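Running this now, will post back.
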Amino acid sequence: MQGRSADSEHSVSDPNMRKRKRDEEVTRSEILEMFSLLKKEQDEKFTALMNKVERGINTNTEQYKDITCSIDFLGQKYDDLLKKINVLEEEKSADRKYINFLENRLDQMDRSLRSSCVEIRNVPKNTNGETKEDLRDIVNKVGQALNISFQSTEIRDVYRINTKKENNQPIVAELSSVFTRDKIIASVKNYNKNHQTSKFNTSNLKIAGPPKPVYVSENLTMATKKLFYQSREFAKANCFKYCWTSRGRIYLRRADGAPFIRVNNENDLSNIPKT
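Update: finished.
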């Protein structure tokens, strides 16, 4: 009886076990399916994300290439522009040199034309009118005051230079020779050296009124006059004792016995050692 009862219980429990086994198999299958679906979903998302990243990389790569091309293009344009600027600067420098050359040639020609001219300054103008003969007479009186004898024919021309001061515009006398001009200028220098308290003045020319200093010098070109003024200012500022002109050229000397310095242009003044 007991044995049959045991068999009977076994037969009753066996279907339950089979059912539980089937339930476990279903649950495992569902879990595996869920994992499969989840994996598939994650794979799709990952693939989509990777595709998006790849597209972004490709887009950035293209943009980088475009930027690189733009930089290369601008760099080439800059190099081309720099070359053009260098060419223009070289041309400008060459033009400046040529202009300086022409200016020097013109100044030399002008200086050559003035080589025998003497300039007399601070002689008052005759208010009643003044003729060429009046001016010629003044030049003759300069010669007489300096004990220089020359023929009236040695005065080729004489005139006043137009300036803002109309009452005593400079007188320019074109003489027949450089020798005569140099002789007059040297005589005035000697006269002033020997008459420190009463240098050459209007009374020497028998002009009525209070004596006024009269200056006699070379007739310089406009460019040389400008440079001579700059040289005199430089001499004052740097304690040079002498600044003078000779035959259209400008010279400086720091002190008695010191070597003279020729000034050809403004750059020469910049290169002279300062005190």
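Residues 1-12 have pLDDT under 50 and may be disordered. More later if anyone needs it.
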